[in-house]
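Write out structure tokens for Reduced coenzyme F420:NADP oxidoreductase.
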Amino acid sequence: MSTDLPDVSALSIGIVGGTGDQGKGLARRFALAGHTVLIGSRSAERAEAAARELDVEVRGAENAVVAAEADVVIVAVPWEGHKATLEALREPLAGKIVVDCVNPLGFDAKGAYPLPVAEGSAAQQAQAVLPDSKVVAAFHHVSAVLLLDPKVERIELDVLVLGDDRAATDTVQALAARIPGVRGLYGGRLRNAGQIEAFTANLISINRRYKAHAGLRITDV
């Protein structure tokens, strides 16, 4: 695999909707890697409380502050609030790499299942809402439990990175590799994000059956 990726060590990372387990887990791992990390929420107080829960130094602030200050912004909001949250942040996110890790899923007695999205995927919806941002889809299949567990030093998995801007996908691949054990692999154009998001439902089924925190590894790369 080519290692010709940019140096991203100085980039600050903001996580919109960072008070959930996925957002806090990513915040924790990037802070451990030496990045300045900002956790965002609609409420500054809630964001600050989430930041204090972690065993690393991160800062909490309102989503708009995080979107304006961070170099790269990860979107980790619940699907139900995805579009409205991004519409409110269109201006501060202009010109930035926006990493969407949202999985549009439903749950019923049979388990998790993918929800239809008019634009094709959450990532494509984000790009439609944020025409002046470079939207990249990534981090869909990383277990929040593993991210948050201080006993887990390495997370052995591949993060599939999808997008239409090569420099942006290279940057996100390099960011993924800042987490020990993780590789960031290019997974195609943004139009292919739907099946990546939907596959999370399969992983949830695997995890429930085998009581695991399964991820993905791509062979022969």
